Amino acid sequence: DFSIRDLKMFICSIPSLWLQMFVAEAVFKNLCLQRDITISKEPLSLQKIVCSYFPALRELRMHETRKTHKAKKKKIGQRPCPESQRALQMLNGDKQSQVKVLPDLPDLIFNKCPPLTKQLRAKAEVEASYAKENRGLLAEKVHLHRRNIKGETALHRACISNKVERLIQLLSSPGTDINAKDYAGWTPLHEACNHGSTVCVREILQRCPEVDLLSQVNGVTPLHDALSNGHVEIGKLLLQHGGPALLQQRDCNGKLPLDYLESVPVKQELLNVVHPEDNIGNFYKRTEQDFCSQQRELWLILFSKMLLNFCLVYNLSSPFTFTLREVACSNVLPVMDPVNCKMKTTFSADWLVEKYITELETFQKLPQFLQEISANIGFFSGEQMTALVATLKTMVE
Question: Positions of the ANK repeats (predicted)?
Answer without folding.
Answer: 150-183, 184-216, 218-250
